[in-house]
Amino acid sequence: AFREDPFNRRGLSRGRMREGEAILAEDIAWHAVDIEPKAGQVDLQVVDPTDTSRVHRIVLRDDQPVTFHHEGSFYTITADVSRKREQARYRVVRDDPAFLSFRDRALKRAEELDDGPR
Fold it and tell me: What is the pTM of this model?
């Protein structure tokens, strides 16, 4: 069973998750497989909520965002692991403007390099 935490109008979902918990935000869900307080990391499975098939497996480290693509959108997820309990705060942004801007600049630069002297 999933705990629902829909995206707000800015494409943000955030809250706390415990080990073993699964969070649903509209068309994507993530399951905290393992939370390691001493290592400061969360092992996540990103799943398709319609059939619970695994889409991605991600290891998040404290405050190190990871971006992945799913069903036409980019998702940037960050975790902050509690050192005292096996739980973590999470923040998921769908189509983060900062990431999209970075991606567009990188693609433009790659195109410029590709069009260089021959």
Answer: 0.76
Mean pLDDT for 47-69 is: 86
Answer whether 84's CB lies under 8 Å from 103's CB.
no
Beta carbons of 105 and 88 less than 8 angstroms apart: no
DSSP line for 17-34:
EETT-EEEETTEEEEEEE
Q: Which residue has the higher pLDDT, 52 or 22?
A: 22
CA dihedral over 16, 63, 9, 26, signed as positive or negative: negative
Q: Which fold has domain 3-114?
A: Tick-borne Encephalitis virus Glycoprotein; domain 1 (2.60.98)
Rounded CA-CA distance 40/38 in Å is 6
Per domain, the residue ranges of the chain are 3-114
In tens, the pLDDT along 79-105 reads: 999 877 778 999 998 887 777 788 888
